[in-house]
What does this fold into?
Amino acid sequence: MNVVVRSRTLVVTDALRNFVRRQTQRLVSRGHKIENVVVFLEKVKRKKNDMTATTAKFFINLPGKNIVVQERAYDLYLAIHEAARSAMRSIGETKDR
It folds into this structure.
């Protein structure tokens, strides 16, 4: 599985990249055949207490199907974690069908 982390507004550090890889490994550990995962991270400069300031968007390529999951949160790590959970749920629903 190939994992790509991209961002326009943030500098993608090694810690951030490793956290995304750990979250995407949870998707593979459930036995799904995932070809490629592209994670796009974005932080919008808004008010200090804005609850939707950061966005994590997962583009997941499965054989024969593409899944896009987007989550917003106050913290970037929380947005990545919630997007990974939503991706696991979406992949599980497509596999059950």
Observations:
- The longest strand covers residues 54-62.
- The chain has a mean pLDDT of 88.
- Residues 76-96 form the longest helix (21 residues).
